[in-house]
Each structure stands twice: as C-alpha cells, then as structure tokens.
C-alpha cells in the first residue's frame, strides 16, 4: 500500500482553504488551474506508460478536482478515517485521472505517477483498493461502481454516520443493466446520502453513446427511479461545486455533468479515437502548452 506525502497533503489543505474562502470567480479559476495541472500530469503519465484512456481522463478531471479540492470530507494522511466521505470511480478505466488527483492531494507521492502501469506498480490500469490509498473499491468491469456505492450508502445509514457517498459513472457504462437495478434500489430506499455523477461526454469506445444504445432522456430515466436530478456543465467548476454542496432532499441525487471527451486539448476534444489512443511526445508537448494557458 502506498503511503501519504505529508508535504503535498499540507499544501492540499491550504489550497482547499483558499478555495473555500475565495470569491466565486477566483474559486472557479483556482479549480480550473488545479484541474489543468492534473491533466498535464496525466498526459505525461500515459505517454510514459504507452497506454491509458486519455480522452475520458480529460473529460472527468474537472469533476474529480472539484470533489477532492472543494467537497469531499477526506484526509490524505488518514485515508481509513471511519467517518470519511466515500468516493467511487465506477468508470475505472480512467484511473489515470484519479491517480493524478490523489497524488495532487497528497494521498501518495507524485513521483509514483511515473510508475503507472509498470510491472509490480501499485498504479494499475484500473484502481486497486489494497494498493492505493483513497481508492474505496476496485473498479474496471463497468456497471459495478453504482451497486457498490448503494451498499456503502446503506451501510452509512445503518451506522448512523454523516458520511456521504459520491460515485462517478461513465455514460456508456449506463448501458449495463446492473446500474438500473442499483438505481431502483437507491430510489426505493431513499438514499439521500448518495450522489451519482454521470460523466456525460456522449462518446464510448468506437462510437457515440446514442448510436450504440441511446440513453436519452437520461434525466427522466433517473427521475422515474426516484432520484433528484440536476443537469450541469461538467467543466464549470463553480456550477459543480454549487450542486455538490447544495442542501440535499430526501432522495438520492443524480448529477448529469455534460462534458467533452478530451477536454482542454484541442486536437483531442470530442474525438472518439482518443478513447484510448496514446499521444506522442510532440502531441504531449503541444497539449501541455494549451493546458498552461
């Protein structure tokens, strides 16, 4: 199991405090900068490894950054704190985005990112809870994260805990039937301590989601299962922050975050081939320049 980096964790606490105390537009800018730094780290990580899912990493990083730097009740130096919020990345193939975010928060040293997908590395192509602090459950086979998160929310209620469960799902992943069994259960049990966030970039491996198996009207589907639903811009950090921290009702919450696959890198944006294409060294250099703006 990797261990925390105390210096980075201390910097994370200071940045969280700065974000919390900042005026709205400054808060948005701080989160934007932090997300783009994670995007750059992710690109270099995938380039070194020669594998990864860069397009989905780029689309989900604004969500992850907002959660870890503005919302989640977690402690990188005490990742097993019993009353922590739970975060599950159901779309586990975008592990690179999660690793770059966890490293930036100090859950483990940022130098470990250089080992991504190497033999015997803790940073596998899909997150492993027995190797990486901050990972609550192993994910990779799609359709598992929401059912596990429902179980976590039920456990939290039974324990009388204030912890909240957040789970991020891919939109193509919602073609797996297990998600809808879990959604029905969460609605039936009125699990107000559960928030599901859909990374709605409308692309999956090989095609658009609506060409493969149409999901829309996705908001109405979740409402029919007994969820409160919000549709937001998944790249507007302030909008994300507001919806994640808003007073909750008595039902589970679904946030449909409209995103762009490859966000932040012009030649990757909304291009299906970047689902798992690996950028060249020249492309990484071009992308890093764009992300630094």
How would you characterize this protein structure?
- By secondary structure, the chain is of the alpha/beta class.
- The chain has a single domain, classed as Rossmann fold (3-Layer(aba) Sandwich).
- It is 44% helix and 11% strand.
- It is built from ten helices and seven strands.
- It has helices spanning 6-21, 24-49, 54-70, 95-105, 145-159, 177-189, 209-212, 218-224, 237-245, 281-291, and strands at 86-89, 165-170, 194-200, 203-204, 207-208, 228-233, 253-258.
- It has a five-stranded parallel beta sheet with strand order 1-2-3-7-6, sandwiched between helices. Strands 4-5 form a two-stranded antiparallel sheet.
- Helix 6 (177-189) links the parallel strand 2 and strand 3.
- The mean pLDDT is 97.
Record keyword descriptors for this entry.
single chain; 293 residues; alpha/beta; Rossmann fold; five-stranded parallel beta sheet; two-stranded antiparallel ribbon; 10 helices; 7 strands; Transketolase_N; Transketolase; magnesium ion binding
Helices, strands, pairings?
Layout: H1 6-21, H2 24-49, H3 54-70, E1 86-89, H4 95-105, H5 145-159, E2 165-170, H6 177-189, E3 194-200, E4 203-204, E5 207-208, H7 209-212, H8 218-224, E6 228-233, H9 237-245, E7 253-258, H10 281-291
Parallel strand pairs: 1-2, 2-3, 3-7, 6-7
Antiparallel strand pairs: 4-5
Helix pairs in contact: 1-2, 2-3, 2-4, 2-10, 3-4, 3-9, 5-6
């Amino acid at each position: 199991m990797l261990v925390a980096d105390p210096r980075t964790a201390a910097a994370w606490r200071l940045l969280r405090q700065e974000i919390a105390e900042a005026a709205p537009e400054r808060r948005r800018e701080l989160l934007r900068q932090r997300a783009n730094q994670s995007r750059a780290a992710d690109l270099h990580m995938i380039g070194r490894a020669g594998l990864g899912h860069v397009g989905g990493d780029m689309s989900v990083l604004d969500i992850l950054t907002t959660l870890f730097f503005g919302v989640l009740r977690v402690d990188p130096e005490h990742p097993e704190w019993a009353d922590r919020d739970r975060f599950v990345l159901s779309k586990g193939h975008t592990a690179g985005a999660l690793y770059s975010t966890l490293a930036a928060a100090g859950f483990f040293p940022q130098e470990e990112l250089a080992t991504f997908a190497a033999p015997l590395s803790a940073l596998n192509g899909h997150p492993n809870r027995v190797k990486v602090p901050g990972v609550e459950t192993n994910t990779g086979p799609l359709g598992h994260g929401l059912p596990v998160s429902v179980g976590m929310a039920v456990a939290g209620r039974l324990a009388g805990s204030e912890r909240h469960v957040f789970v991020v799902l891919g939109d193509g992943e919602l073609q797996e039937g297990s998600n809808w069994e879990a959604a029905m259960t969460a609605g039936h049990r009125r699990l107000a301590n559960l928030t599901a966030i859909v990374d709605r970039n409308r692309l999956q491996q090989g095609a658009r989601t609506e060409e493969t198996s149409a999901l829309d009207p996705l908001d109405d589907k979740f409402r029919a299962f007994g969820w409160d639903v919000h549709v937001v811009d998944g790249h507007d950090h302030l909008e994300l922050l507001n919806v994640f921290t808003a007073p909750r009702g008595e039902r589970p919450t679904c946030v449909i975050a409209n995103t762009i696959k490859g966000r932040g890198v012009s030649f990757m944006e909304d291009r299906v081939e970047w689902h798992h294409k690996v950028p060249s060294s020249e492309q990484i250099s071009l992308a890093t320049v764009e992300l630094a703006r």
